[in-house]
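User: Here's a chain of 236 residues. Predict its fold as tokens.
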Amino acid sequence: MTLQWTAVAFFLYAEVAVSLILCIPIISAQRWHLVFNWRIWSRLSPYWNKFFFAMIMALVVLFIDAVREVRKYSGPEPMQDAKANPNLYEHVQMKLFRAQRNLYICGFSLLLWLITRRVVTLLNQVAATLEDSAGLQEQANKALEAAEKQQEENQKLREELLEEKKSTSATKQQVKLEIERIKSQLRAAEEAVRKSHAEVEAMSRQAKGLAQEYDRLLREHHQLQNLHGAEDKKDQ
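Assistant: Prediction complete.
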């Protein structure tokens, strides 16, 4: 194996290892997001896209070269020459096997390179989505707590209104009872006033009668005195 294909093979092994590590279920997307946000990656980010596309170009070139080698050693001319010479046939088959091996190595390296890039992107998106969902969940919890608190306050207000209505109705009932008591007292007072007026009128009539009787008796007394004086004068 030449140096370039050895490098491609090691690159493939590294991609397989990285892909397996990224697929470990115990490592969450948030942890990978923290790893991807290390300062070293931010420093390498200006060169990352260039390196990515450079590797794609290199792998595409090697893939095309491997395809060319496979077509070269699987064509009719090398096979015809190999049939004439058994040693050449084994050599052609060995070259064809190496070309196919290089084709598979390069093809899988290119595929895993694209898949790894996509997996990293998806992990970042999943982590960002989880953070957003966590924020939305927190906002929803706060809104739910606020709604529950508002509902409790509304319930307290309803209870206070009911108590106020009950107290108002009780106050109204007490006021009605007090008004009825005052009315009854007023009626009793009016009745007492009428009775007192009647007694005063009766007493005034009785006083008038007594005054008239007193005047009559006084006149009779004067008359008796006058008669008694006249009799005394006759006796003399």
